[in-house]
Specification:
Shape: globular
Largest sheet: 6 strands, mixed
Number of helices: 9
Radius of gyration: 18 Å
Helix content: 25-40%
CATH architecture of the largest domain: 3-Layer(aba) Sandwich
Number of strands: 10
CATH class of the largest domain: Alpha Beta
Length: 255
């Protein structure tokens, strides 16, 4: 069976900040309806990778294509309208707006959704992400789990084709993580490509079909979660050379 073409593709992407290399000739691709996890130690280049995909940071070299079109010169707003959405490790809602108003802004401005459709979309997302009871609450008054849910819902309100998730499981309990994983999997089932950076490794291994490990801006390993986590180089760069073969990757290492 022929493999589906890449929806999002990076080719030879490099980026330096002064003497620090944060992306070293990276070539990665992601297909529709695929959930891919990205792990790596602090400073591996994960956040910069997301920033380059979303348009917040311009690569020094390389190409970035979305649905066959170069987006390297497009700003973040244009990329969002095309279907590239991202969340942030520290949620960034409009704190003085209600949860529902936050979703409307994302739908109208980020997704260019027509007014009537935008209200319906926001209402559906409140239900899907478990925020219905908080619809009229100011976003600044939400607890951590609900803020994470809102960050996810705001990304979905832009009607993305690629969703970049940044540390959505951090700080949550195991049951709360399981709830978010279930929501994200439903998103993938609708055909959205999900690229998920996470230090809570067991959240990724329970959800993704492919895992990527970065270190020092380089691609260290790529494959099934089991294969990548068993890779000796991954263990060394991620957790240190003395990390034992029997260590438990499910404890949220690297937080």
């Amino acid at each position: 069976m022929t493999e589906a073409p890449a929806l999002l593709e990076l080719t030879g992407v490099s980026k330096r900040f002064g003497r620090i290399t944060v992306a070293d000739n990276l070539s990665l691709s992601f297909r529709a309806a695929e959930m891919v996890g990205i792990v790596g130690p602090n400073g591996a280049g994960k956040s910069t990778l997301f920033a380059m995909i979303a348009g917040d940071v311009t690569p020094d070299a390389g190409e970035l294509r979305f649905d066959g079109r170069s987006v390297i010169r497009l700003d973040p707003a244009a990329r969002c309208r095309m279907g590239i959405a991202r969340t942030y490790q520290v949620p960034r809602p409009f704190e003085n707006m209600t949860v529902f108003e936050n979703l409307l802004v994302a739908a109208f401005r980020g997704g260019q959704v027509p007014r009537q459709s935008g209200f319906a979309l926001a209402a559906n997302l409140l239900e899907e992400t478990g925020l219905s009871q908080d619809a009229n609450r100011p976003a600044g008054r939400l607890g951590l789990l609900q803020r994470k849910r809102l960050e996810l819902a705001r990304g979905l309100a832009t009607q993305p084709r690629v969703l970049l998730l940044d540390e959505v499981a951090g700080g949550l309990t195991d049951p709360e993580v399981a709830q978010l994983v279930a929501i994200v999997d439903q998103v993938r089932r609708r055909g959205v490509a999900v690229v998920w950076v996470e230090h809570v490794v067991h959240a990724l291994t329970s959800a993704v079909s492919r895992l990527i490990c970065l270190a020092g801006g380089r691609l260290i390993a790529e494959g099934t979660p089991d294969d990548v986590l068993a890779n000796p180089e991954v263990k060394e760069v991620y957790l240190g050379a003395d990390y034992g073969a029997e260590a438990d990757w499910g404890k949220g290492v690297g937080d």
